[in-house]
Design a protein that fits this description.
Number of domains: 3
CATH superfamily of the largest domain: Spore Coat Polysaccharide Biosynthesis Protein SpsA, Chain A
Shape: globular
Order of helices and strands: EHEHEHEEHEEHEHHEHHHHH
Largest sheet: 9 strands, mixed
Oligomer: single chain
Helix content: 40-55%
CATH topology of the largest domain: Spore Coat Polysaccharide Biosynthesis Protein SpsA, Chain A
CATH class of the largest domain: Alpha Beta
Length: 344
């Protein structure tokens, strides 16, 4: 029985697949099985996958019609036998010691998940391949730790890659098929299940920057799934009783909602989709009893109703003045405003 199952969804990665798979098969830890999931790739990836399986018994290939990364990962998980699972994207590659170091950190700490840093570039620099000392620290997955990681921009819950996760934890919350940003929604659940996170402060995963990826390309309908993922994260941390962490993600949700509404109307030229997105956002906020602060509310209204917002600002300012200083203060403010207008 292999100790580690490595899962690689493969789609349109012919130029990079050899580098990716070679980096996995040349790991210093060899007790692993590798699943290459050909997600109906229209290039030569399917044949490359079969060639690897023919010459290395640790490699298994799954061919499927194009169903997306979530389905590819789930199909491999159904066949995986390893105690630990490692996800690698087909255009990325990993440090020769990554699996060994992550496994040592996880088993040494008793953590359910271990993770390393990611290095993002177009090509891996020579420094990436230097020997790793494997030093790690064990972090409890409580709100204080997650807040600290989030505020240092080291929040571990965004991606499934650059981690080693107990398979039993992954199986408690599989990827939502048919969605993108599916790992954003899933990993937060795994973190809470893990109890502890073993963290290696070295870059052992190389992420190849791709300007055509869903997250970095021009706005499309797929980007609306980011709201769905954030809603899942908000629900997860709400159920866990992590209100401060939930507030951090509410800020991110407000920004994403404004961007989605504006993108649907101005880029996709679909005002109906923009209105539906706005309605869905308000329904979610009301259902979960989440309240936006004044800045977040202004941001959302500005995106949803850009023409009406010209009237909103002076009315909102008048209401604030009325509450603070009464009718006399409001009248003085109006006189000063008209006086400035007369001067100009």
């Amino acid at each position: 029985m292999p100790k580690v199952s490595v899962i690689v969804p493969v789609y349109r990665a012919e130029a990079y697949l050899n580098d990716c798979v070679d980096s996995i098969l040349s790991q210093t830890f060899s007790d692993l099985e590798v699943f290459l999931v050909d997600d109906g790739s229209p290039d030569g990836c399917g044949a490359l996958c079969d060639a690897y399986a023919a010459r290395d018994c640790r490699v298994s290939v799954i061919h499927q019609e194009n169903q997306g990364q979530a389905a590819a990962r789930n199909h491999a998980l159904a066949k995986a036998r390893g105690e630990w699972v490692c996800f690698v994207d087909s255009d990325d590659l990993i440090h020769p010691q990554m699996v060994e170091r992550l496994l040592s950190a996880a088993e040494g700490s008793g953590a359910g998940i271990s993770m390393c840093r990611m290095l993002e570039a177009q090509t891996p620099p020579e420094v990436f391949f230097r020997e790793c000392d494997g030093a790690w620290q064990s972090l409890p997955m409580d709100e204080e730790t997650l807040l600290s990681l989030y505020d240092r921009d080291e929040y571990p819950g965004w991606v499934a890659c650059a981690k080693l996760i107990r398979r039993e934890i992954v199986m408690t919350h599989l990827f939502r098929e048919g969605r993108v940003y599916e790992d954003n929604e899933a990993v937060c659940h795994w973190l809470l299940q893990a109890g502890y996170l073993a963290r290696i402060d070295q870059s052992l995963y190389f992420y190849r920057g791709n300007p055509n990826s869903t997250t970095k390309s021009a706005f499309s309908r797929k980007r609306l799934d980011y709201l769905w993922a954030l809603e899942g994260i908000l629900n997860c941390y709400g159920a866990a009783g992590y209100p401060r962490l939930r507030e951090r993600f509410l800020q991110r949700y407000a920004e994403a909602a404004a961007s989605a509404i504006r993108g649907a109307r101005e880029i996709l030229k679909e005002p109906g989709l923009a209105r539906q997105t706005e309605r869905n956002v308000w329904r979610f906020l009301c259902r979960e009893k989440l309240r936006l602060n004044a800045a977040q509310l202004d941001q959302l209204l500005d995106a949803a109703h850009p023409k009406l917002i010209r009237f909103y600002w002076p009315v909102a300012g008048a209401v604030r003045t009325l509450r603070q200083t009464g009718f006399g203060g409001l009248w003085r403010k109006i006189r000063r405003w008209f006086g400035k207008g007369a001067e100009t």
